Automatic annotation (TrEMBL), chain A:
The gene is nqrD. It catalyses: a ubiquinone + n Na(+)(in) + NADH + H(+) = a ubiquinol + n Na(+)(out) + NAD(+). The keyword Methyltransferase does not apply. This is Na(+)-translocating NADH-quinone reductase subunit D. It is an enzyme of class 7 (translocase). PANTHER family: ELECTRON TRANSPORT COMPLEX PROTEIN RNFE, NA(+)-TRANSLOCATING NADH-QUINONE REDUCTASE SUBUNIT D.
TrEMBL record, chain B:
The chain crosses the membrane at residues 57-75, 95-121, 133-163, 245-263, 270-289, 301-319, 331-349, 355-375. The keyword Transmembrane applies. Composed of six subunits; NqrA, NqrB, NqrC, NqrD, NqrE and NqrF. Keywords: Cell inner membrane, Cell membrane, Flavoprotein, FMN, Ion transport, Membrane, NAD, Phosphoprotein, Sodium, Sodium transport, Translocase, Transmembrane, Transmembrane helix, Transport, Ubiquinone. It is found in: Cell membrane. NQR complex catalyzes the reduction of ubiquinone-1 to ubiquinol by two successive reactions, coupled with the transport of Na(+) ions from the cytoplasm to the periplasm. NqrA to NqrE are probably involved in the second step, the conversion of ubisemiquinone to ubiquinol. Its cofactor is FMN. Its main location: membrane. This is Na(+)-translocating NADH-quinone reductase subunit B. It comes from Maribellus luteus. Its EC number is 7.2.1.1. It catalyses: a ubiquinone + n Na(+)(in) + NADH + H(+) = a ubiquinol + n Na(+)(out) + NAD(+). GO terms for cellular component: plasma membrane.
Amino acid sequence: MSEPLFSKKNLKLLSDPLNSSNPITVQVLGICSALAVTAQLKPAVVMSISVTIVLAFANVIISLLRNTIPNRIRIIVQLVVIASLVILVDQILKAYVYDVSKQLSVFVGLIITNCIIMGRLEAFALGNRPWQSFLDGIGNGAGYAVILIIVGFFRELLGSGSVFGFQVIPDSWYITNGGFYANNGMMILPPMALITVGIIIWVQRSRNRKLIEN
Amino acid sequence: MNFIKNIFENTKPYVQKGAKYHWLHSVHDGFFTLFFVQKNTSKSGTHIHDYIDLKRTMGMVVLALVPAILMGMYNTGYQHFKAIDELASTGFFEIFLFGLLKVLPIIIVSYGVGLGIEFVFAQIRGHEIQEGFLVSGMLIPLVMPVETPLWMIAVATAFAVVIGKEVFGGTGMNIWNPALVARAFLFFAYPAQMSGIKVWVAGSQATDAITCATPLGDAASGVISYTASDAFFGLVPGSIGETSTLAILIGAVLLIVTGIGSWRIMLSTIAGGAVMGLILNAFAGSASLSEANQVFFAIPFWHHLILGGFMFGAIFMATDPVSGSQTVSGKWIYGFLIGILAVLIRVVNPAYPEGMMLAILLMNTFAPLIDHYVVQGHIKKRLKRATVSGRTA
């Protein structure tokens, strides 16, 4: 096998999850965390990075072990690998971005149960070589990140009037200061995250008609 | 009439198939059917045609809403002048005119935004313009507090039409009543503008001097601030169209006589509310309730029917043929549960004084399930009765 590292086929592993096989909008995995951590942009970004790292390295490790893992206990082996990586990520977050880590609270730990990771290990890493698995992990992590960041951007902008914690909507616009504007309180409630994801799916499928199931 | 007919005849060539403005043909058809009856007949099979089409059904509901609209306008002025203590020195027409000028912009915004979106969707999807919004566009202003900013009405209307209706496939496909989706959206998105003491009387946003809670809001904190006759005739603060039980009942008569609204749903909703009111009365003396709660539990059961949005919801919202139950026994169950839930929510959870909205939305969600079990029940009953002739089982 003398395939170049970035052959067309390998690049497809990176780019497909961004659109036609997006983990959230097409595979419908990892919805729970997409709803929980997107009320603001900063935790959404940190969450995306964490999931991408865990996913990429779990993919690589499982792919390296794929020929030695007995089929009947493969789920437990996968869980051990994921859990170790999540603990590492959790500790790093606690050490360097403590406030965000507190905001994410249990959701970092819950990366272990994020369906995207288990799904990609089962569907891809168990049957492919490490480099391809790594690219698949990065690609799917990025696909997850794109949706989280879009949702987080709109929820923070409309729900709190800020982006990345910076106030974007002028204070003088608010009703309490004599203006006319008010933040949309529903945007920071989880149902609105679901509706936002739904709108993204709607837009994506009306642009890419192949994704519409009959 | 010939003059209007000529306009449509003259513009027709431009929207025919292949012509330059063909993409606007559904707009043309939409306005044409507003004035005339389409002569097109179906080409195959046997169909029964009736002039009571969707547009005329909707027109009838809007007609039934007229008493509530007029009374809402008058009450808007009445509450304003009462709050600034000039009621005695202001004439009837001045009061009505003030209310008219307050309410009209809300109606215009609701229709403008909603119909605009309907037209755009009809063009994009290439189907006919459907008239479902004629009623929703009138219901939306009537369930809002008069001081709701116009841009919020616009946002809520857009949300209701797009997320509440078009997503599911447009008129006739929606799960929930669009007008209530609009109200629920505002209720959760902008609670400060949709509840409390500063939104119910025109002018109260501008000056701190005018504050006024709805009778339900007062009752939730243990104060009885209304008389039953005021609540019946509609001279209490509240959403624009919901206050006058009398005006709503006049509309109800029209709906029942023309057969457009289901009297079963109306009756069972009212029965449900009354039953729940009686149950709460029975517990009113309980020592485990707070003092405010004891007052609210103890109000006569029929007051629940004339307060807040109960009657408006029962007559105009619960009977929505799209989102309500379809089967006869389903309608009884559906309406009865709406009544029970509405009173239960408004009394037991004072944070949601408008239990009617939540009750109807919840039962809209369950209406298909109720219908499913009613139909299954029929099938089972008939199977039991059925015998296979000429054979022994």
